[in-house]
Amino acid sequence: MKEGRGHFYGAVTVSDRGQIVIPAQARRDLNIEVGEKLLVLGGPAGGLILIRAGVVSRMLLRWTDVIRRLGEEELEEIVEETNGEGI
Question: N or C: which end of the chain has fewer CB atoms below 10 A?
Fold first, then answer.
């Protein structure tokens, strides 16, 4: 599977216990390991989105870093604009 492209792996059936099986080829292509945590999100038009918990954690860390940097840049701009007065 090429990076950044979607792929159709087939259809799955929900069991009476609410379980599904991720197709073996999808697990291989995406390196999904036994015991790996996946988050289940409600998607557009009633769909479901499965995403690795680790991916979300990494995204949140990046966003936190970006927000922190933006905050520092804003503070520096305020200091420059006021020439340090009132701070």
Answer: C
